[in-house]
Fold this protein.
Amino acid sequence: MAVVMKKIHGGLLKIILHPFGTNITKPKASDVLTQHLLQRNFPHWTSYFVKYSSVENDQFGLSHFNWNVKGTNYHVLRTGCFPYIKYHCSMAPTYNLEPQNTFFTALKVINLGIPCLAYGIGAWFFVSVTEIIHTRSGPVNIYFLYQEDIRAKH
């Protein structure tokens, strides 16, 4: 089922974002996540948006998961909120997040993604800070609702 949903989702995004095709190699969303955490020197938490059109969505179907960067683990809450993908990362010990991941993914499917779309449209009007993330595939802009204090623990 997840494979079918990923194909449908990918096809719709292709039609919306690139109706005439594109040969541009985009960085993976996972690379942007890793590089952001490295560039920030392992923050205690961070919350950002990245445009669907800027990355390859290689984390489709992941809503709540562990992400390890050089031995430092983060709990990541992730959702598609068109035209963005939203990430909220908190430094935390590795934990089995599969039940929460299944629950959050099911909620998105049940409500047809409408609240996620509303969140994305709202964010479109309120993002106020941009940061450039450098990846092997080139730079990517990420967006914030406000300037984060990179030393903040909460």
Observations:
- The longest strand covers residues 72-81.
- The mean pLDDT is 87.
- The first helix runs from residue 2 to 17.
- DSSP finds four helices and six strands in the chain.
